Amino acid sequence: MLEKAPRIAVDAMGGDIGPRVNVPAAVQAAREGINITLVGDEEILRGELARIDGADALPIDIRHASQVVEMEEKPSDALRRKKDSSIQVACQLVKEGLADGVVSAGNSGASVACGMFVLGRIKGVERPALASIMPTEKEPIVLLDVGANVDSKPFHLAQFGLMGDVLARDVLGVDKPRVGLLSIGEEEGKGNSTVKEAFDLLKQTKLNFVGNVEGRDIFTGDLDVAVCDGFVGNICLKLSEGLARSFGRVLKRELKRHMLSRMGAALSMRSLKNFAQMMDYAEYGGAPLLGLKSILIVCHGASNIKAVTNATRMAATFVERKAHEHLAAKLAAHSELGQFSRHKAS
């Protein structure tokens, strides 16, 4: 790339709302100095840009894509039948060196599939993992996998630990991340057979592995990386999001119930706003798909402008800090984990 600032390809058609969210988010990121390529229906995208003052002076390009992967479509069907979909074109731009990373709030399965088959995996990685950055009582924590792999082998979980370690170092700035394995008890013998075998593998790495952790440990802030398979991780993530929203609604209702509580709420408004901000998933934008040769950030389908903007910032940070290169080096240092294959593991 000749440009000093990262260029991020934004799947402008993806998500529940599509260009009406993705274009303003991309404009905000461009105002902060990030080069943007909007991918999607050119006529629609130019119309959205025309509605935003000053957008024509920003470092924003458009790459036309004639197709869109709908949220309910099967990823395999979309890959075969929609070669010119916005997510495939965005990934192809990175593969050809015309962009440095991809952000998409579209069909997550299609995004993962395009990441694997268009961008390609780092040597030694059999299954990339979606990593979510979650708030805690102290500093944010990395939870992975949160949905890319619903059936994982023990060595997959060990690789997830290595990936999470790199993410915590390069993006969250943790010097020596504490890595825990999510299980049903803290004792070494707890968990199913997959977790028990993964425990033994993680002990053999050079990670700061702290052993098994329970679900309640995620939000204490005493952990930096929590490892699990995508089935467990996705439930954990969605449960956390739902709990935060329900807690916010209940708190708001109770604060309005009586005059004294309304007065107390007025006096505590700053603290309440800080709490709401901390629990807002949009603060962290999206989930990076770790283990690919390039950067792909997968956002929630219902992402708002703030979430997509933050996801674009995260993608640019990955590029600037060369996080994928560090991940490749980290996995190469543990080459024994790359000796497995699906055939050998069966």
From TrEMBL:
Catalyzes the reversible formation of acyl-phosphate (acyl-PO(4)) from acyl-[acyl-carrier-protein] (acyl-ACP). This enzyme utilizes acyl-ACP as fatty acyl donor, but not acyl-CoA. It is an enzyme of class 2 (transferase). The keyword Chloroplast does not apply. The lineage of its organism: Bacteria, Pseudomonadati, Thermodesulfobacteriota, Desulfovibrionia, Desulfovibrionales. The keyword Chloroplast does not apply. Pathway: Lipid metabolism; phospholipid metabolism. HAMAP family: PlsX. GO terms for cellular component: cytoplasm. Gene3D superfamilies: Isopropylmalate Dehydrogenase (3.40.718.10). Pfam families: FA_synthesis. It is found in: Cytoplasm. Belongs to the PlsX family. Keywords: Acyltransferase, Cytoplasm, Lipid biosynthesis, Lipid metabolism, Phospholipid biosynthesis, Phospholipid metabolism, Transferase. InterPro entries: FA_synthesis, Phospholipid_synth_PlsX-like. It comes from Humidesulfovibrio mexicanus. It catalyses: a fatty acyl-[ACP] + phosphate = an acyl phosphate + holo-[ACP]. This is Phosphate acyltransferase. One of its GO terms (molecular function) is phosphate:acyl-[acyl carrier protein] acyltransferase activity. Homodimer. Probably interacts with PlsY. It comes from the Bacteria. One of its GO terms (biological process) is phospholipid biosynthetic process. Its EC number is 2.3.1.274.
